[in-house]
Amino acid sequence: MPGRGPRPSRHTTVFASGAAVGLAVDLLLGDPRRGHPVAAFGRAAAAVERRLWRDHRGRGALHTALCAGGTVALGALAARTVRGSRAASVALTAASVWAVVGGTTLGREARAIGGALEAGDLEVARERMPHLVGRDPQALDGPAMARAVVESVAENTSDAVVGALFWGAVAGVPGLLGFRAVNTLDAMVGHRSPRHRRFGWASARLDDLAGWPGARLTAALAAAAGGNPRGAVRAWREDAGKHPSPNAGPVEASFAGALGVRLGGTLSYGGRVEHRPVLNGAGRAVEVTDIDRAVRLSRRVTGLTLAVCVGGRLIADAVSARKRRSA
């Protein structure tokens, strides 16, 4: 019919439907309570590490290639197996999104710590902190724990939600699973401990590369969805580069500006004290009530991410159709 636009590609319809279902299941159920695929991947990656470990970058690169590459290959094989059925492809995408996206559990853990802090029960809050952040909870008082939770919500919105959906839109199930594998490897071996300083180098660099687009998308959507877009953009522009992580910097700075709070400062990891630059120095100190505000902002960013990713796929379909017509 004249004036009718191009039909979405199979990739677009499968991704859009599967991602929407997967996010809905995550919203209702949170992470799988038993047999979580990410935990299974972590055990497999740890077993590979035990066999391969040497204090050498080459061995670490091999570990990264085997674990991340193997995961992408399995995802591609699974997608190829079900590609004859649209319903099965949607189901596989939905299951993959549910497995790799952790937005609901992130919010639950953050609010549980916030509830303990609001009740004045610092010991309960410290007991729950390791579920969410890698810092030494005994070194944190109430305000420091609240700040750490807000920072973790911001960073994990990018790592556990937006980055995965971005790569799912680009590469389907292999992109979803591959991104989560890379992110998990970075958490396991990418930190600068004596054991992993060289061995984890490849995982850390690959995570920086894979997380780059999702982090910028998260920062942009946080600015759009927060209460202070101008402040979020200003903090992102002025402070993101001060952060030691090229991807956490934009996300945390944008969240800080959007929420009107001040992030960064002194923290402790594994007994090692770090002094992080302050993000959005014009903001106020984080309060317990800001934890819930950060979770609500994270959820708005998640919804916008799905819309942006599907919209990006539709634009790509239209461009491809136009090129075919002009060829």
Walk me through the structure.
The protein has 327 residues and is mostly helical. The chain contains eleven helices and three strands. It has helices spanning 10-29, 37-52, 57-82, 86-100, 103-118, 122-128, 142-189, 201-225, 229-239, 248-259, 289-326; strands at 261-269, 272-279, 284-285. The chain has a three-stranded mixed beta sheet. β1 (261-269) and β2 form a beta hairpin. α1 (10-29) packs antiparallel against α11 (289-326), α4 crosses α7 (142-189) and α5 packs antiparallel against α6. The longest helix has 48 residues, at 142-189. The two termini are 21 Å apart. The relative contact order is 0.14. The mean pLDDT is 93.
Strand content: 5-15%
SSE pattern, N- to C-terminal: HHHHHHHHHHEEEH
Sequence of strands across the biggest β-sheet: 2-1-3
**Shape descriptor:** globular
Low-confidence stretches: none
Helix tally? 11
Largest sheet: 3 strands, mixed
Radius of gyration: 20 Å
Give me the count of strands.
Answer: 3
Give descriptors for this structure.
11 helices, single chain, 6% strand, mainly alpha, 3 strands, 327 residues
